[in-house]
Amino acid sequence: MSNEPATDPKVEILHSAVEAFRRREVSFRDILEDLPAAIYTTDSEGRITYYNKACVAFSGRTPALGTDLWCVTWKLLTPDGQPLPHADCPMAVALKEARAVRGVEAMAERPDGTRISFMPYPTPIFDEAGALIGAVNMLVDVTEQKKAEELMRLMAREIDHRANNLLAVTQSLVTITKADTVEGYKRALEGRLTALAKVNSLISRGRWQTVDLRTLIEDELRPFTDNVSIDGVALEVGPSAAQCFAMLIHELAANALKYGSLSTSAGSVAIAWALDQGGNMMFRWTERGGPKVCEPTQTGTGSSVITAAVRRLGGEIFRDWAPAGLNCAFVCQAGRLDLEADRPVPAGLAVA
Known about the structure:
There is one protein chain. The chain is an alpha+beta fold. The protein is built from eight helices and 14 strands. Helix content is 39%, strand content 22%. The strands form three sheets. Strands 1, 2, 3, 4, 5, 6 and 7 form a seven-stranded antiparallel beta sheet that branches. The protein has a five-stranded mixed beta sheet with strand order 9-11-12-14-13, covered by helices on one side. Strands 8-10 form a two-stranded antiparallel sheet. A hairpin with a 4-residue loop joins strand 1 and strand 2 (48-51). The chain is rod-shaped and about 110 Å long. The relative contact order is 0.08.
């Protein structure tokens, strides 16, 4: 017979339970380490007792176990950028008031100065007797979400502004358009509104940022592709300037179609622009091959729209009714090609 003492079944059960608990704890920690969300725990006094790898990436620092209080971050701020003491952070509130905190936002500043907007989820932990023994917190980075929300707000405001502006421009065009007959009025107004619709479609596709000038001109003059040459440097213009150019090109083309070089199949229009070293943009419209032209004795609506559009761009227009065809030119500062939306506009042309 063996002289070894018999193992107490109760001790074996206890050992098995301890090992099972240790294995389960290791398994839980492995899971927490692999989670992309920053998760940490504290004791009842708020001292950090555990943090996962995501906490280090989130905070830009390595928390000090047993020393750091309440939060793993370096500095905390309110959503509007005001300092938030760690002792007043959501985790501190959760521990001091023994309740979970939800629905709040905060901002964390890393030691390198970068900031993160986040949502914390601090939750107290109680023992079987109901005594507070610590808390667990999860920090969810919502920086990209906040950026997307801000972008949506900006776009909504821009759309609202553009819609109001478009109505103002339309009303202005209806008011200034004149003709001897109802049919003539209808054609003139439809042409201007179509030009406005085309450029606003370009502005929309460009997310209300900039529009390529060559694309704008090509869209407006597409029916006359065989009679038009376009030569200019790559140039992006802002929405306000784009509307000015659209009205300018439309009125010049309408005049050329009615009286000038586009009224005959042999006529042509050369459009060119360039930037000089002084930051000026030089633009020229040259007609050739049409009927002989002469300076009009009266200023028509189209001429007024052209002049107003050029002045809106900060330039002055020069016209030469040469026998060979009309020449138009203007010079403006390139910086004026991204006009502020709220800049006052000339009377009779409410271009954005």
